[in-house]
Predict the structure.
Amino acid sequence: MPRLVVLASTSPFRRELLARLQIPFETAVPETDESALPGEAPAATAQRLAEAKARAVAQHYPEALIIGSDQVAANGSERFGKPGSRENAIAQLRLMRGKEVVFHTGLCLLNSAANRVQLCCVDTHVGFRDLTDAEIESYLDREDALSCAGSAKSEGLGISLLAYLRGDDPNALVGLPLIALCNMLRAEGVALP
């Protein structure tokens, strides 16, 4: 049974979350196309990409438990990815103000030795306050949120932009649903408290 745990992600947020479980792990860069397929639902995209990331590093880790995760934020047909620029972040936050956005966090645990996959999606419903342009500008002046889906870091100052959070695991919103991951790891024989 594989014991090496590999996080298929370059995200410092996911790395920090996984470190909370106090198990040794390595990180690997997954080379994947993160585009949604035509007509694909946001939750389906998140799950497909989580598995694709895990499988992308499996060839380098044939005897490992590989964790893949991906997040898609959506309100109806509108999707909100990582903004990458201040202008995009402003535009995203303007579109999201006063609305509920669902953050779909796909999670995959791939046992590469057995080619066994556990896959789920953990949703977090996030209500954004009716933000003023001045509040959006002030927020982006004070916090770098350009690498976060939806332009708001709930684990930081971004919490001030929100009216509510609803979901089964607060870690899912940051990018790695630890409650579901613990269950998956236990199913693969990893000892956790």
